[in-house]
Specification:
13% helix, Prim-pol fold, globular, alpha+beta, seven-stranded mixed β-sheet
Length: 168
């Protein structure tokens, strides 16, 4: 596996994840100075060579990820069309991870649709905007269902303002 060129920045951090999993296994991976690595760190590259999944730490290097679990519904309600085009990854579960630089980001946002309900009658969970302390599984990794995460949009990472991204 290879880290995409858009993510090959020294200010970004990455974590190894067991093959077929979505959760990092090292402690303190989500802390600055913790068990997270630059894209070219020899230890991290060793994990990749052994076939581990990997994740991109959010919030570090001002990187946030708009993690849409319900892409069809986000299109229906017009949110997806408002998001700036950017580097994105199709998840193994069928969602989209949109990567953005946001210098003034706030805390994680969990998105719900109050007009659509899930099978339990609760507002439909649409996804999250992942910020400091979280991560998103990277392209080339394997989802627990066996599907691969794949680059969807191969272009530069767009910059957004928190004020704009948090109003969608």
């Amino acid at each position: 596996m290879k880290i995409p060129r858009q993510l090959q920045r020294n200010e970004f951090r990455f974590v190894p994840i067991q093959f077929g999993s979505k959760k990092p296994f090292e402690s303190k991976w989500n802390k600055r100075g913790g068990n997270n690595y630059t894209y070219d760190d020899p230890k991290f590259r060793g994990y990749l060579q052994e076939g581990y999944n990997w994740g991109t730490c959010t919030g570090m290097g001002d990187l946030i990820i708009f993690d849409s679990d319900q892409e069809v519904r986000l299109n229906e309600i017009g949110v997806a069309q408002k998001l700036p085009s950017t580097f994105s990854v199709r998840t193994g579960g069928g969602g989209i991870h949109r990567y953005y630089i946001c210098k003034d980001h706030g805390d994680k946002i969990i998105m719900y649709d109050t007009d659509a309900l899930d099978e339990k009658g609760k507002p439909l969970h649409l996804g999250e905007v992942q910020t400091l302390g979280f991560q998103a599984v990277g392209p080339g990794s394997t989802h627990p269902n066996g599907s691969k995460y794949q680059i969807e949009t191969d272009e530069p990472i767009a910059e957004v303002r928190w004020e704009d991204i948090s109003t969608y």
